[in-house]
C-alpha cells in the first residue's frame, strides 16, 4: 500500500508472482505478456482492488493526441456496411482539424472487448467515440468507470443520461415510413426489425407500431435481423411464408431491405405493385432494384456531431454537452 492506503503496482506484481515490468505490461494491455501472466495479474488486480488510471493522469499533464473509435461489431460487418465507412470518414475529417489521430478498435463481446478495455485503460487515447452500441457491451458504464471522455454515435441503450451522444429521431422516422405505407392503402404491413439490444432497433420498431396504432390497426407481423443484407432476406422470407397477404413492408435498414427485395423477387412478388417497401438509412438505397424509398439516417452528420461533442469534453472535462437529436427525412423512390 502507498501512503494513502491504495494498492500499488509493486503489490500487484508480488501477488501475481511476476516482475513489475510484466505487471505493468499486463495492466496496460500489452500483447507482450503470456496468457498465464495476464490471468495472474488480472486476479491480483481484482483481489487487491488496484485501479490504474493513467488516462486521467495523462489528461492532467499531457495528451496522446489520439482518439479511439470503438465499434462492437464483427470485422466483416464494419468493412462491408456503408454506415461505418461514412462514420469513420466523418470522424477522421473532424479529428484532422485538430491534428488528432483516429485509432480504430473493434470490440466484440468477450476476449476482444476485454482487450479493448485494457487498451483504453492504459491511457493510449485521450477519448473515445462509440459506434453501434449494444446493451450487452455496457460501454457507457465501462468508459464512465475509466473516467475517459466519450461520445456515442447513436443513443446508448444503457446510460444515455450519463454520456454525450448524437442520433436521429428513429421513432419519428419509423412513423414516417409506416405512415407512407398506410397512405398507399397497405393493409397487411410487416416489419423487418433491427436487433432488439440496440436503441435503433427498439426505436424503429416502436415508431412502426405507433403508426399502426394511430391508424387503428393491429401490430402486424414482425421479424428481426441484425442490420445485415443476409438477415433481411431470411426475415422477409419468413414473413412471406407466414403472411402470404403481405402488401407492405417497413425494413429497419437499407442493407436488410436489399435482402428483403431479393426474397420478394424470389417469391414472385412485384415491388411496389404487390408489396410496397420502405427502408431506413439512405445508404445506397438509390442503387437498389427498384430504387428504395427510405428514411435518411445522416451517418456522416451524426459522426461529425458526436466527434465535436467529444472535443468539447476534451476542452472542458467538466462539461457534459447536451445530446443531439436530428429530425428524420423521408426520401420517396420507386419501391413505395
Give me the number of helical elements.
13
Residue share in β-strands: 15-25%
Total number of strands = 12
- In CATH terms, what is the architecture of the largest domain? 3-Layer(aba) Sandwich
CATH structural class of the largest domain: Alpha Beta
What is the overall pLDDT average? 90
Shape: elongated
Helix-strand string: HHHHEHHEHEHEEHEHEHEHEEHEE
Strand order of the largest sheet: 2-1-3-4-5-11
How large, in whole angstroms, is the Cα Rg? 23 Å
What's the N-to-C terminus distance? 68 Å
> What kind of sheet is the major sheet?
6 strands, parallel
Q: What's the CATH H-level superfamily name of the largest domain?
A: Response regulator
**Structural class by secondary-structure content:** alpha/beta
Range of helix content: 40-55%
